[in-house]
Predict the structure.
Amino acid sequence: MKRLKVLAPLGACLLALAAVAQAEIIPLSRACESALALSAGPANLREAAGVLVLGNSGYETVRASSNGFTCMVERNHELSLVPQCFDERSLHAHVSMLLEEGRKIRQGVPFETILEQREAGLENGQYKPASGPGIVYMISDFNYIRGPGGDVVKVAPHVMFHAPNLSHADIGSDPATALQNRGLPIIASEGPHGFMVSFTDAPSDSADVLAYCAGELPDASAFRPFPPPTAP
């Protein structure tokens, strides 16, 4: 979704960049993936949000949006699940790239190749930054994202705001301070594709995911949390 020169480990976790040998993913039922996608957004947006799921040939529309928000589950690792809800600006900036990557996954393209092609597209202008202010909700309790070491990390719920060319100096914050004070902003991927990220106190309601995804999701206890727990 962004340039790959990012904060370590935050950028690598939040930007969901993959590098594994094969594009093999966790199979999900349509109902489970729909519920998981919608869990990325707040309850007041879910009923009218659009939903995309990964079908046999790529992402397919389950429901069109009637409120400007569209939700989907990005895949960037064989064990990853990355629920996201995009507003209209984010949709135009990022979802076309994710749709293309979904087709490649179903064609068996290795994640390593998909990553390389994403990098190239971000660098050469194939993928454009957002045209103005925008938001990506990632407040699900099921953010399983590839970490910087190649393992899957359970990332805390958070919200991402488009912040092109904004730096930590600009916002008077730094990663170490922000990670110890949930809610303070962090810049991920400084540059034209940058985001300002804020972690939330609690995830969205998980009732639908638990109801529709029984037996389909990976064991989250195997994934280390990010940010790491703070000492009492």
